[in-house]
Specification:
single chain, 218 residues, alpha/beta, 8-stranded parallel beta barrel, globular
Length: 218
């Protein structure tokens, strides 16, 4: 196995736990707080800033997270490569997985948003390493014209695919334990992490609840 593939394997093995998503508001400060509280992954999802500003923030976040948490850049393969991030996450309107893989090579992780086990299997066949699955619950921050899949849909998808699944949408302290118990490798959180007091303290609670749910998996 090449050194690049070995690095990708190591990164994939670390993909588990609280998955914090930071946006245009204070992304570096929020990333720092989330990681201090135990987030295992930080996704940089800045929709409003110019590419240069997103790159600068992603570079700073990648530096502060090094050896502490994975950093995934949303949408932009080029910015993931240039920033030194660990991977990229692709949505419905982004590059196809196969094209993203060609650009980022063998070392970086490629994730893809999916709505079903069928979509998940297609993404894996095209070269994705892990899968975003949702919406699991109604979203507080990004309403979608898609019916929530619920815990049953999440569990079925986790059982059906041989890759880590990141649960997306509406995840909070009251349900994150059940998300982990359903088989999700990660739980993506935005609102409940950053809108309810000190984010580092909130991250500790969310990470602990996720770990408790993970211990209940069968």
């Amino acid at each position: 196995m090449s050194a690049a593939l070995e690095e990708r394997k190591r990164r994939l093995a670390r993909l588990g736990g609280l998955y914090a998503i930071v946006g245009d508001e204070a992304p570096v400060e929020r990333a720092r707080a989330a990681v201090e509280g135990g987030a295992a992954v930080v996704q940089v999802r800045m929709k409003r800033g110019p590419a240069g500003a997103v790159l600068a923030a992603a570079r700073e976040i990648a530096a502060l997270c090094r050896d502490r948490a994975l950093v995934i850049v949303n949408d932009r393969v080029d910015l993931a490569i240039l920033s030194g991030a660990d991977g990229v996450h692709l949505g419905d309107e982004d590059l196809p997985v196969a094209e993203a893989r060609r650009l980022c090579g063998d070392a970086l992780l490629v994730g893809r948003t999916t709505r079903s086990a069928k979509e998940a299997r297609v993404a894996l066949a095209q070269g994705a390493d892990h899968l975003g699955y949702g919406p699991v619950f109604p979203s507080r921050t990004k309403p979608l014209a898609v019916e929530p899949r619920g815990l049953a849909g999440l569990a079925a998808t986790c059982r059906a695919v041989p890759a880590p699944v990141v649960a997306i949408s509406g995840i909070e302290l009251g349900n994150i334990e059940e998300v982990a118990a359903a088989g999700a490798a990660c739980a993506a959180v935005i609102g409940d992490l950053f809108d309810d007091g000190d984010p580092a303290a909130r991250a500790r609670l969310l990470a602990a609840a996720f770990a408790e749910g993970a211990r209940r998996r069968v």
